[in-house]
Amino acid sequence: MTEKNSGHRYAIVDLEATGTGSDAKIIQVGIVIVQDGQILKTYEQDVNPHEDLTPQIQLLTGISNKRLQKAPDFSQVAEEIYHLVEDAVFVAHNVKFDGNLLAENLFFEGFDLHTPRVDTVELAQLFFPTLEKYSLGNLAEELGLDLKQAHTAISDAMATAQLLFKIQEKIACLPKQTVGHILEFADHLIFESRLVIDEIYATMSDYSGEDCQEVQGLMLRKEIQRKEMRPLSQDFSENLAQLDLEERKPQKMFANLVKERLYDEKQVHFIQAQSGIGKTYGYLVPLLSESTQPLLVSVPTLILQQQIMEKEGKKLAESFHLSIQSIKSSRHFIKLETFWKTLQREDGNRLLNRHKMQILVWLCETQTGDMDELKFKQRYQPYFDELQHDGSITPDSLFSEWDFWRRLHSKAQASRVVLTNHAYLLHHLKDQNYLVDQRILVIDEAQKLLLTAESLASQSLAIQPLLQNLQSRKDRADNLLEQRLFESSFFELQQLISNYQHLGVRELSAQDLDQLKQNLQEVDNLDGSLQELSWFLGFYDHFWLEEEVIDGESGYHLRASQMDLLDLASLLPRTKTFCISATLEISKRVHLADLLGFTEVTMDELPSQKSDQQEIFLLSDLPDLVEMNLTDQAQWIALSLQEWSMLGQPILVLFTSRALLVAVSTILDEEDVEHLAQYRDGDEMVIKKRFERGESLILLGTGAFWEGVDFASQNQMIQVIPRLPFDNPRDPLVHKINHHLRGEGKQPFYDFNLPVMLLKLKQAIGRTRRTDHQVSAVIIMDKRSQTKRYSHQIKGFLKDEYYLTMTSSQDLLEKVKEFFGKHS
């Protein structure tokens, strides 16, 4: 009888060391020997490095200098370690560090280690392609590894052994065709990591299972058959219980109001409700329970769209088998034919080839083809730009039947709820009728619709290509007149940039562009970008310059829009419409309905309620940050954050300026203060999740963090607002609205700009009050809230909505500590 061949013998090794540099010394060794999915032996040993550990290493590992003084030298344990690993495949999480360090130390003791090496970081990235991070701690959380004490050698080695088992299981669950395809690129993996894949592949059955289907050599996940939707109860509380959610009085009031307006004879309903009451369930549940009409829900940002799909959408789908489809621009989705073609070509870049392998795994899992599921795209963005779907599907395409973009629209048409964003909605109102046809329309955060519409209605032209084109046409001109016209046009555009650089002239009058416009009108046979520029100058009536800095190089853009506000009401479908937000009423004299162009509407406002779980702190003795230069502002904010971090609470800092955020982050880096910063540490959703996992106590954010990203998982939080969120008066939309209001005899600052700032502030404060149990302290550092002529309106607004405390910087820590103490 022949004995079955055993698989590879793996030595999973983890080393703790005095540092991460080339001079690091081993202080602890953990080894786990495994074979055929079984742990055969474990080994753990402290090692005396004969030098003191830094406080950081002691804190990280829990190992003291006193403990290591009793441990043997590495020379005393080297032989035992060598014999454990010499005939095994060497495995580690970041094998380059552990493998090199151990081999070097063994070499100096006379033992030459030449074992094959496997890196579980890269294998985890390959076979679990949708995770955000691949640290051992994060993988333990995501995959359920038993990591009892991180940064202890034997504990890390045991967790890495479990990770290896998970990787082997995952490979075995994939279709054999996919694994074979991966092996075609596996030589691009570091060291000998392909050995793990080879070993599993040799034992795999040719049967691919029922979950995937082969299409032109690619294994693609079959669509999951939808279950019939379970009817919701007409009792809102009963539906919440089904969703395993607690009932909240304001949310129930909101839901009842939505239900009431559903039966109202008017078509358009504006409802204002404060943040933090759970508005998404508040409109979805009654509309789904009271009507059989499908819904179209539009939200302001992709981030919020993703949040709703991951949270409310997922819960409703699980509890009621709701068919909900998220739809966004085609560029987010993979074009299978393009990917298939890249597999046929040879690419030398190791990282690009690893991405090919990751996508092969992902295609066996994804139901959507949405590349946003892949969190590593930015590591080789040009490749993913190449794979973006262009929105076109030809019948003769090899993948026409399986095209994700086509399937997305097919599923969306049959879905009870379609979720999209304002930009996509406005862009496709005309060419995708099914989006709005016979659907109830819900515009969530409706105040953002106007900004989105104006952004889409404006246009931008890069100036540098125009200058190049003008120079080229001048050189090729047949006559002197054309040469002079192109030369004059070139000069006019250069002059705009010069005035911006030296005089700060951003806004442009019609007179500034008259000569350029006239020149182009006199030229025959304009084409390309110059023809577009001529049309651009003739169509729009409001122009300005924008500067964009990429890799230290400035690029200039000529932007334009119409001075009159868009009549959005005329663009939107004549269907039952709910406009919902915490910020619908701009002021007593200006309502969002007016700005959007709606006349026949209902207006409802839910009463806001003060909560003792949130308190606003105004500092009486801070300098006027607005009057300081950027460096001094950043210094004050960074010093304050260092002091407030002593409270040990998560701190969310909301900036109105990217430049100030970057300046504060730079100072915190110089002071070795751990923090997460937008732009530096990933996109909004990535750093939000890292912050919620407790990777850092400080998060610096701007943009979507003001009103599109919720923080519900931290029970206690500090929110810091360095500057009040006034709109830039030079912003084209603000300029346009101010012009519109002046024409109606209103005061733009008091009727619009100040109220909008207060409503933005209200929304921002609502980011950290998302549950009935969450407690947050909000610190406002902007002295304008106390010194300006309009400060009494700011304080009055805050007192009406929140509990307000005036305090000195010196007493702040104690006051905030007392506040959290009351709710412990």
TrEMBL record:
<dbReference type="InterPro" id="IPR027417">
    <property type="entry name" value="P-loop_NTPase"/>
</dbReference>
<keyword id="KW-0067">ATP-binding</keyword>
<dbReference type="InterPro" id="IPR012337">
    <property type="entry name" value="RNaseH-like_sf"/>
</dbReference>
<dbReference type="GO" id="GO:0003887">
    <property type="term" value="F:DNA-directed DNA polymerase activity"/>
</dbReference>
<dbReference type="Pfam" id="PF13307">
    <property type="entry name" value="Helicase_C_2"/>
</dbReference>
<dbReference type="GO" id="GO:0016818">
    <property type="term" value="F:hydrolase activity, acting on acid anhydrides, in phosphorus-containing anhydrides"/>
</dbReference>
<dbReference type="GO" id="GO:0005524">
    <property type="term" value="F:ATP binding"/>
</dbReference>
<keyword id="KW-0540">Nuclease</keyword>
<keyword id="KW-0347">Helicase</keyword>
<dbReference type="GO" id="GO:0005829">
    <property type="term" value="C:cytosol"/>
</dbReference>
<dbReference type="GO" id="GO:0008408">
    <property type="term" value="F:3'-5' exonuclease activity"/>
</dbReference>
<keyword id="KW-0239">DNA-directed DNA polymerase</keyword>
<keyword id="KW-0269">Exonuclease</keyword>
<comment type="similarity">
    <text>Belongs to the helicase family. DinG subfamily. Type 2 sub-subfamily.</text>
</comment>
<protein>
    <recommendedName>
        <fullName>3'-5' exonuclease DinG</fullName>
        <ecNumber>3.1.-.-</ecNumber>
    </recommendedName>
</protein>
<dbReference type="GO" id="GO:0045004">
    <property type="term" value="P:DNA replication proofreading"/>
</dbReference>
<keyword id="KW-0235">DNA replication</keyword>
<dbReference type="InterPro" id="IPR013520">
    <property type="entry name" value="Ribonucl_H"/>
</dbReference>
<keyword id="KW-0548">Nucleotidyltransferase</keyword>
<feature type="binding site">
    <location>
        <begin position="273"/>
        <end position="280"/>
    </location>
    <ligand>
        <name>ATP</name>
    </ligand>
</feature>
<keyword id="KW-0378">Hydrolase</keyword>
<dbReference type="GO" id="GO:0003677">
    <property type="term" value="F:DNA binding"/>
</dbReference>
<feature type="short sequence motif" description="DEAH box">
    <location>
        <begin position="444"/>
        <end position="447"/>
    </location>
</feature>
<keyword id="KW-0547">Nucleotide-binding</keyword>
<dbReference type="InterPro" id="IPR036397">
    <property type="entry name" value="RNaseH_sf"/>
</dbReference>
<dbReference type="InterPro" id="IPR014001">
    <property type="entry name" value="Helicase_ATP-bd"/>
</dbReference>
<keyword id="KW-0808">Transferase</keyword>
<dbReference type="InterPro" id="IPR011545">
    <property type="entry name" value="DEAD/DEAH_box_helicase_dom"/>
</dbReference>
<dbReference type="InterPro" id="IPR014013">
    <property type="entry name" value="Helic_SF1/SF2_ATP-bd_DinG/Rad3"/>
</dbReference>
<dbReference type="InterPro" id="IPR006054">
    <property type="entry name" value="DnaQ"/>
</dbReference>
<dbReference type="Pfam" id="PF00929">
    <property type="entry name" value="RNase_T"/>
</dbReference>
<comment type="function">
    <text>3'-5' exonuclease.</text>
</comment>
<dbReference type="InterPro" id="IPR006555">
    <property type="entry name" value="ATP-dep_Helicase_C"/>
</dbReference>
<dbReference type="InterPro" id="IPR006310">
    <property type="entry name" value="DinG"/>
</dbReference>
<feature type="domain" description="Helicase ATP-binding">
    <location>
        <begin position="237"/>
        <end position="497"/>
    </location>
</feature>
<dbReference type="GO" id="GO:0004386">
    <property type="term" value="F:helicase activity"/>
</dbReference>
<dbReference type="Pfam" id="PF00270">
    <property type="entry name" value="DEAD"/>
</dbReference>
